[in-house]
């Protein structure tokens, strides 16, 4: 029997098909435009039509009456949505997987109002399932110029659903206007929800990142809110409903950044991260008669009101009614137009 001729056997091919960085990118993004909605897509690797969030925002027509949905795969940049760009949606599939991030502080940006990673001046803004981050180092109490804002919202009628806000001091600048936060994750250490907006927070998880304190310590190293209401004529306030507060450190629910500060917590679970006195008048006793801090039906070890500051309102069901649903932010007039 003749021996096989091994010299004429075809060698196996070791070449492999080249893999593109975009092979796993969703094929249906962006979807086709409709009569009422335009879609834009951002991916820094060039897998869709824009590589930066800002370039997609800039491409939206001024004062567009259509809803402009910007689907974001990633973004490491500062973003400004100007007043001339209403009706913008920023969207992703989950706040744990996608974020817009930057690292400016008040010192590096030459002022508090310029340090935010994202600034939203345009009205009718919606963010869904995405995070906003400022990754500057966590400051110590009293550090000068260390404020590091993840987002600033001076635009009216803005809503955030399933979003994350990550930072330390002054994470979320809830500046002015009417805003709605639903199922959001908000992290920070000092005054990390601050500003003078009229906002409703529902079913949100609030996490203190303040430094751990020793057991039994009475020292305070943070605050959840710092409301900037200047007069009784300003129709603003923060209302937290069905939220939870945890994390590390020993913090106040709020401190009176301005003399008519107004914040309430309703049906919120509080761990012992909340100090027994609960609130702070910004070390100005004259504000005790003008601030409005209230709690109703809260639970958990941090919700014991027996040692609360004397000016804290122990609210009843009738008193909280005006603060706990969409009417507080006139949501019946504008939220119905959002896809939430």
From TrEMBL:
<keyword id="KW-0134">Cell wall</keyword>
<keyword id="KW-0325">Glycoprotein</keyword>
<dbReference type="GO" id="GO:0045490">
    <property type="term" value="P:pectin catabolic process"/>
</dbReference>
<comment type="pathway">
    <text>Glycan metabolism; pectin degradation; 2-dehydro-3-deoxy-D-gluconate from pectin: step 1/5.</text>
</comment>
<comment type="function">
    <text>Acts in the modification of cell walls via demethylesterification of cell wall pectin.</text>
</comment>
<comment type="similarity">
    <text>Belongs to the pectinesterase family.</text>
</comment>
<feature type="active site">
    <location>
        <position position="191"/>
    </location>
</feature>
<feature type="compositionally biased region" description="Basic residues">
    <location>
        <begin position="1"/>
        <end position="19"/>
    </location>
</feature>
<keyword id="KW-0732">Signal</keyword>
<dbReference type="InterPro" id="IPR000070">
    <property type="entry name" value="Pectinesterase_cat"/>
</dbReference>
<feature type="region of interest" description="Disordered">
    <location>
        <begin position="1"/>
        <end position="27"/>
    </location>
</feature>
<keyword id="KW-0063">Aspartyl esterase</keyword>
<keyword id="KW-0378">Hydrolase</keyword>
<feature type="domain" description="Pectinesterase catalytic">
    <location>
        <begin position="41"/>
        <end position="332"/>
    </location>
</feature>
<keyword id="KW-0961">Cell wall biogenesis/degradation</keyword>
<dbReference type="InterPro" id="IPR012334">
    <property type="entry name" value="Pectin_lyas_fold"/>
</dbReference>
<dbReference type="Pfam" id="PF01095">
    <property type="entry name" value="Pectinesterase"/>
</dbReference>
<dbReference type="InterPro" id="IPR011050">
    <property type="entry name" value="Pectin_lyase_fold/virulence"/>
</dbReference>
<dbReference type="InterPro" id="IPR033131">
    <property type="entry name" value="Pectinesterase_Asp_AS"/>
</dbReference>
<dbReference type="GO" id="GO:0042545">
    <property type="term" value="P:cell wall modification"/>
</dbReference>
<keyword id="KW-0964">Secreted</keyword>
<protein>
    <recommendedName>
        <fullName>Pectinesterase</fullName>
        <ecNumber>3.1.1.11</ecNumber>
    </recommendedName>
</protein>
<dbReference type="GO" id="GO:0030599">
    <property type="term" value="F:pectinesterase activity"/>
</dbReference>
């Amino acid at each position: 029997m003749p021996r096989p001729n091994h010299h004429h056997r075809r060698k196996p091919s070791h070449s492999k098909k080249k893999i593109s960085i975009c092979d796993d990118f969703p094929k249906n993004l962006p979807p086709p435009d409709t009569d009422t909605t335009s879609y834009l897509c951002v991916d820094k690797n060039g897998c869709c039509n824009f590589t930066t969030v800002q370039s997609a925002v800039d491409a939206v027509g001024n004062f567009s009456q259509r809803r402009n949905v910007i689907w974001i795969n990633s973004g490491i940049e500062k973003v400004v949505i100007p007043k001339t760009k209403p009706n913008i949606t920023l969207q992703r599939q989950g706040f744990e997987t996608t974020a817009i991030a930057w690292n400016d502080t008040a010192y590096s940006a030459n002022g508090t109002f310029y340090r935010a990673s994202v600034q939203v001046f345009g009205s009718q803004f919606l963010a869904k399932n995405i995070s906003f981050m400022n990754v500057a180092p966590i400051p110590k109490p009293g550090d000068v110029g260390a404020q590091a804002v993840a987002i600033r919202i001076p635009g009216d009628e803005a809503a955030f659903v399933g979003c994350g806000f990550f930072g330390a001091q002054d994470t979320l600048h809830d500046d002015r206007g009417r805003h709605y936060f639903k199922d959001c994750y908000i992290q920070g250490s000092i005054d990390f929800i601050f500003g003078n907006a009229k906002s409703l927070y529902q079913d949100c998880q609030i996490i203190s990142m303040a430094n751990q304190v020793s057991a039994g310590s009475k020292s305070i190293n943070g605050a959840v809110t710092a409301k900037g209401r200047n007069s009784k004529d300003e129709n603003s306030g923060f209302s937290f409903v069905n939220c939870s507060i945890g994390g590390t450190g020993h913090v106040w629910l709020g401190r009176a950044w301005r003399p008519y500060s107004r914040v309430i917590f309703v049906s919120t679970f509080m761990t012992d991260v909340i100090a027994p006195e609960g609130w702070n008048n910004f070390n100005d006793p004259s504000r005790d008669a003008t601030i409005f801090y209230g709690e109703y039906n809260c639970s958990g070890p941090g919700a014991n009101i027996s040692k609360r500051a004397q000016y804290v309102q122990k609210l009843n069901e009738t008193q909280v009614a005006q603060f706990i649903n969409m009417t507080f932010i006139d949501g019946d007039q504008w939220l119905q137009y959002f896809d939430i």
